[in-house]
Amino acid sequence: MRVLVTGAAGFLGTRLIKALLADRDGSADSVRVIAADTVACPIEDERVERRTGSIADAGMVGSIVDRDVDVIYHLAAVVSGQAEEDFDLGMQVNLDGTRQLLEACRRLPRPPRVVFASSVAVFGTPLPPIVPEDVVVAPQSSYGVEKAIGELLVSEYSRRGFIDGIACRLPTVAVRSGSANTALSSFVSGIIREPLAGIDAVCPVPLDTSLWVCSPGIVIENLRHAGAMDTAGVGSRRMVSLPGLTVTPAAMLAALERLAGAAVRRRVRCEPDARTTRFVCSWPGALDVTRALALGFRADRDVDALVAQYIAERRGRA
Amino acid sequence: MRVLVTGAAGFLGTRLIKALLADRDGSADSVRVIAADTVACPIEDERVERRTGSIADAGMVGSIVDRDVDVIYHLAAVVSGQAEEDFDLGMQVNLDGTRQLLEACRRLPRPPRVVFASSVAVFGTPLPPIVPEDVVVAPQSSYGVEKAIGELLVSEYSRRGFIDGIACRLPTVAVRSGSANTALSSFVSGIIREPLAGIDAVCPVPLDTSLWVCSPGIVIENLRHAGAMDTAGVGSRRMVSLPGLTVTPAAMLAALERLAGAAVRRRVRCEPDARTTRFVCSWPGALDVTRALALGFRADRDVDALVAQYIAERRGRA
Fold first, then answer.
1. ipTM of the complex
2. Confidence band of B125 (pLDDT split at 50, 70, 90)
3. How is B33-55 classified by DSSP, letter by letter?
4. Could you tell me if residue A293 is inside a domain?
5. Residue B205 — φ and ψ, nearest 5°?
6. Same-domain pairing of B10 and B23
């Protein structure tokens, strides 16, 4: 199987490639991955070919989309905070880059599976308490607009038979290892990761803000499912809201206290920031994922499982 | 007032410019129009500057967006049938052209009003019998996708303060004078216009198909309202479903018989065409236009008024 991963050096890209290489069903031997990102993917393996460059660069895109590619995981993106700060960069990478990638697919002898990482940022207030998949997208950030346009393009290129695409609306992924990034949702991981590392952290939204989150483990599993599933059941609308958990920062911190103690919990204080709160509160706190579950996507068990997954991973590294 | 009209040589563009020039409230003396289209706008008037070129051409777009433009009516588009036949052309004109126009606006000293002609083709089945404005767009044609992306861009560029935009989802405009075009909805005018001219016509969809239509008179009035209205009440979602009438070809032909006689009616026969029917039936037959009416947009009275408007116009020309 030949796979292209864009955003390969990122948190999800790196984990996805490791998962593809680790498969124990025999497929891992024959897997060949092109790992594309603006910086080199850290994975060194003879099955992985690393390429550096921006997907906003047409030459780069042409060079990474191989004639015989089976599956493309398109994860590369300028994240929400940065896309809001730098409108041109967000449009170039998130919109033009995605379009160039789809155009390159169009020239292939057979349409590849394209898994596009979309986001709940495509929605926007006012929203019902549980957001169905047929509610209008009304993004209130540049990132959300760019992802919403990407979804429309994935559906259209699929309808035309240029690709066999699926746009996965990822929940906020938590807990992420590594350091904070410029995503407006970065704090969702930070309020668990930092105190566990002995660092004080700030929650920039009210503690009762509803968040739609998913563990890295489940997201990787779901992305791989999107890459392998039969898309016949998906229909003409190729956007799928992936399962998540509705949690509040308060519930996450309570889980942290249960699993790591009150002293760790006390390292997090709440100082709502108006700008972050405005954006985060425009994202849905709960989605109807009946369709995703019927299509075989999976969900985390509960908030404790989410925090426990990170604690176990941390112990594994130590 | 300085106005730019794209698609100025088209049916709506020409009528819009004539209406702007004819205003009796004193504003017509000072109006200056740049009339842009791929062919020269037929209106000769010292207040109108005609420019020819494609809005897919960045140089052309730069040259028509004047520093002191007040209102832009962006009507230029590759129509639905042609966009379906020629994917690249549709994307270049309907998507890239719109984006280039918005980018040119961004460089102006103050954000102009931009009225973007969108379409009910942004929707797609399954749809409720009366389509609310907050239902998801799920276009099932390239034209619909390109218009849906245009709407998102108009909202985003407005949110950013680059323009003060409004995207009007126009009903199918009938009865259009002139000849048939490659829009999939062209027959809606043809089944009235051709028999009145003594020409046999074919209705390519079942006679009981629900259509969402509006007369040219009301559409021009509503476009001008969109160009002049206070957008404070529009909110962050800049798409508005303009009022229309739900009619069937059968009801239109009954009106034709009432107003022009049975012999004229008999010139139209029904021969459903699978491709046209598929596309037209994916468009909504009725929309909830509560918001548009509250914003001051107007509706036609009934199907007889629609047909009578064309008959009166025809007599006026004769």
1. 0.93
2. confident
3. EEEEESS--S---TTEEEEES-T
4. no
5. -130, 160
6. yes
Say what the alpha-carbon torsion angle B49, B54, B58, B60 is, to the nearest 10 degrees.
-20
Distance between B274 CA and the closest CA of chain A, angstroms: 18
A292, part of any domain: no
Token output for A95:
């919109």
Q: Select from A138, A123, A148, A81 the least CA-distant residue to A244.
A: A123
Judge if A221 and A278 occupy the same domain: no
Same domain, B153 and B198: no
With CB atoms and an 8 Å threshold, state whether B134 touches A135. yes
Give chain A positions within 8 Å (CB) of B137.
136-137, 152
- pLDDT over threshold 90, residue B179: no
Confidence of residue B260 (pLDDT cuts 50, 70, 90): very high
Bond prior to A126 in cis (omega within 30° of 0) = yes
The CATH number linked to B71 is 3.40.50.720
Return the number of CB contacts < 8 Å for A and B: 57
Check residue B133 and give its pLDDT: 85
With beta carbons under 8 A apart, name residues in chain B contacting A85. none
Asked if B73 is an active-site residue, the reply is no
pLDDT band, residue B283 (cuts 50/70/90): confident
Measured distance CA(A68)–CA(A112) in Å, rounded: 9
Residue B64 and residue B87 in one domain: yes
CA distance A148 to B312: 45
Domain that holds residue A101: 2-171+216-241
Written as six digits, the tokens of A65 are 């989309």
Do A260 and A311 form a contact (C-beta atoms < 8 A)?
Answer: yes
**Which amino acid, B102?**
L
